[in-house]
Amino acid sequence: MLSYDPVSKRLGSYLIDAGLLTQFQVDVALNDQEATGMRFGDIVVERGWVKRQTIEYLTRKIIEMERKLGEPLAQGLIETRYSRQKRPK
């Protein structure tokens, strides 16, 4: 069962709590993220560690939970996703 603490947790922490990733995998993905600029979720999917549907589901749940609690992180995630959708191709 996930332990919900949206103020201090990141997606990697939720995936560890769910037993889907190890701390080592999260550290590797964070290093990849720093080196490439890719999103954390995209990295773990590309590496084959987690399915895209799992990342999308968990992200939705985190955002819903943070909205209910009024956390600013949820707003930042929404704005980031919206701005990516609005980029010219």
Q: What is the helical fraction, as a range of percent?
A: 55-70%
Q: Which percent band covers the strand fraction?
A: under 5%
* Distance between the amino and carboxyl termini: 40 Å
From N to C, what is the helix and strand string? HHHHH
**Helix segment count?**
5
Q: What ranges have pLDDT less than 50 throughout 5 or more consecutive residues?
A: 1-8
What structural class do helix, strand and pairing data support? mainly alpha
- What is the count of distinct domains? 1
- Report the sheet with the most strands, covering strand number, pairing sense and barrel closure: none
- Multimeric state: single chain
What is the approximate shape? globular
Protein architecture, described:
With 89 residues, the protein is an all-alpha fold. It has one domain (11-86). Helices cover 69% and strands 0% of the residues. The longest helix is centred in the C-terminal third of the chain and has 18 residues, at 52-69. Mean pLDDT is 78; it is low at 1-8.
